[in-house]
Structure formats: C-alpha cells, structure tokens
Amino acid sequence: MTLIDQVELMRGREAAFSPKEFAERQARAQEAVAAAGHDVLLVTGPENIYWLTGRQTAGYFAFQLLILPAEGEPTLLVRQLEFTGTVANCWLEDIVAYQDGEDPAAALNAILSSRNYERVAMELDGWFVSPKMVRQIEGSLKTGELRDGSGIVAPLRMIKSPAELAAIRHAARYAQAGLIAGIETCAAGVDENAIAASMLADAVRLGSETMAMEPLVSSGPRSGLPHMTWRRRVLEPGDPVFLELAGSHLRYHSALMRTVWIGKPCEEAQRMMDCALLALERALEAIRPGAHCYEPHLAAQKVIDDHGYTEAFRKRIGYSMGVAFAPDWGEGGILSLFTGIDQEIRPGMVFHLPATLRSYGNWTVGASETVIVTDTGIDILSNIPRQMCVK
Asked: 370-384: string of b/e by CB count within 10 Å (b at 16+)?
C-alpha cells in the first residue's frame, strides 16, 4: 500500500463531525469573507480552524493556518509532524505541510504566490501568531497589503448547531461529575491537590477529553483571589473552598462552579452567598430569546448593588461557551453578558454564568450554571444544589 493510499484511508477517521457539518460551516464563512470584501481570509485562531475543519492536536503551538478563499476549496498549512493527524481529523483534500527548519511564512508565500489573490485578509486578533510572523507574511504578499480579517469567523460560532449542542451536553455531564467528586473530597486535613485530582479523575473517567483550562481549586484566604489553582494547601476547619471546572467533549466545553465551607461559615460570607445566588437566579430569568446580552447582567448587578456588594463583583455575569483551546475554556472574546452588549439572545446560544462575590484575600462565594438558550427560555445543564455546601 502506498503512502497516498494510507492517507486516503485515514482521511476523516478522527473527524469530530460529518463532512456536511463542516461544509455548511465553511460555506457560511466564505459568504462572510466575500461580504467583507476580501478574496481570501488567512485563519489563524485554533478555535476557528477547528470549527471550520476539525483540525485539533496538542501540537497547535506550532504555526498552522487555514487559507479560506471567498470561492473555492480551503487549504490547510501545518507542520509536517502534524500532517497525518490533520488528515485523520479533517475531511479536507488540500493539506500542505512545511518541514521543521523551514520558514512557515515562506511556505505560505509559496502557496499564495501561485494564486491570484489581490485582497488578502488575516485574523490579527489571536494569541498564536506573533507580530513578527504577521510582518513576514505581509512582506511576502505581491500587493504588500495585509488586511485585518479579525472578527469574521468567530461570530458565526455564537449559535450552535444540534451536533454542537449535543457535545456541550456531554461536556456538562463530565463537569458535574468532576464537581461532585471535588465537593465530596473536601474535608479538614485534605489538601487542594487531592481535591483537584478527584475532580479531574471523575470528569475524565466519565468521558471528558483534555480541558482548555485546568480546574480552579483554592481554599482558605487563597480562595479570595481570582483564578487560583491548587497548590498543596491543607484544608482546616473554618476554611472556604472555591471549586470550578469545565468538562470537554469534542473540544466543546461546559463549566460549573460551587462553594464549599469546612464548618459553619461566618455571617458575612453567608450573606454574600445568598446575594450571589439571588443575582444568579435573576440573571437566569432574564435570558430568553429576543432579550439582549446586557439584560441578564443588569438584572444580576441590581441585586448585587442593592445588597451593597458592588465592589465585591466588578465583572460580567457571563460569557459564551463552545469550542475552546488553552488557555481559556470560554468564548468570552466572542460574546459576553455585560453592560453595553446589545447582541440579541437567540436560540442555540450557550452561556456560562459565574455569580461570584469576593472578600478579596479572604474568600469567594457563589455558584455558576451553563445554559443553552431554547425557543422558549433556557435549559440549565446541571442539577446539583447551588447552595453553599457546609462540610
């Protein structure tokens, strides 16, 4: 059997979705590229490349780029080592590899120079292409001009297809299993690492794939600092414990957060917890088709302001969820539930709402839910109590 035969046997074998699903996404994206007045879009974000092609790997730290013309078939440029995995991930016919030691900008130029693209745009708002690489690519263009194509593909991801929603529901099951395990592990004398290990073990055991961000586990005064991860601290009586994680299925994520207290919480912490839960409830009530993304935030913010905890919040109430690669499990760069965001909420959108209040350097309390917007309201993807778990 020749290498070509082997490649053809692998094509699409590891694909997350059907050829039809990806073809529909590519068609929508190509219409958006044409509407923006570009001949071609150079897609650099790993989430957008995955959404359009199914390309995924732990090796996305190496340069990769999707050439998405307004008309015609896309071309995916990847590192040679990643070639066979890319073939297995994707249904694409045109996959080009560059060698280690070869300048990927030169490899890209070789492809572009053989085609008559005059209006070339590139995603410039991502984390994975350096300014130096952008300058190299622009310098190699025949026109000498590289347009900013940021914000063309990502908005197309806001409303999820039935297949995407099914993946998110699986991810929610994994997240809930992990969080339940973390809560059950919390006890005086147990350290944060054991809690994190339980969360990861049960989420992965149930089916979770690699997560775009590690679970957040912090206890005692550390829990009053945002986005802390486990660090061997041993829980003591009277400690607060902050737990949050996202499960992952086919790179689609669903997140969940709860609060634990070792022994009886102080009165102020309980008051803050009650406020956070009420704020979350009001925000959830405000999510409905036809509403705007600022409305859930304002509903939560009013509760928090009325209770005198404005300074303990100071953030958005939620953000979009979907495809995610490290370092972030959310799609907050696409869509937020926050002041001034007048995007209409529509069925098929997915949001994570972490309602947290902090006594900075002392504790964080609150809970979160991931929800799917339906034709009539929302579907909440967890069924575990939101109240503080007192151990």
From this structure: bbbbeeeebeebbee
Instruction: Select from 107, 78, 76 the least CA-distant residue to 91.
Output: 76
Closest CA to 325 of 44, 79, 17, 15: 44
Q: Read off the DSSP letter of residue 323.
A: B
- 4 falls in which pLDDT band (50, 70, 90)? low
The domain ranges of the chain are 3-157, 162-390
Burial code of 50-60, b = ≥16 C-beta within 10 A, e = fewer?
A: bbbbbbbbeeb
Positive or negative: CA dihedral 366, 326, 174, 331 = positive
CATH of 162-390, one of 3.40.190.290, 3.90.230.10, 3.40.640.10, 3.40.50.720: 3.90.230.10
pTM exceeds 0.85 for this model: yes
The more confidently predicted of residues 194 and 127 is: 194
Farthest-apart Cα atoms in the chain, separation: 72
Please give the Cα distance from 98 to 120 (Å, whole number). Answer: 21
Report the sign of the C-alpha dihedral through residues 217, 220, 226, 232, in that order: negative
Neighbours of 385 (CB within 10 A): 10
Residue 156 in tokens: 């197309």
Q: Which CATH number fits domain 3-157: 3.40.440.10, 3.40.50.1820, 3.30.450.40, 3.40.350.10?
A: 3.40.350.10
pLDDT tens profile 346-375: 999 999 999 999 999 999 999 999 999 999
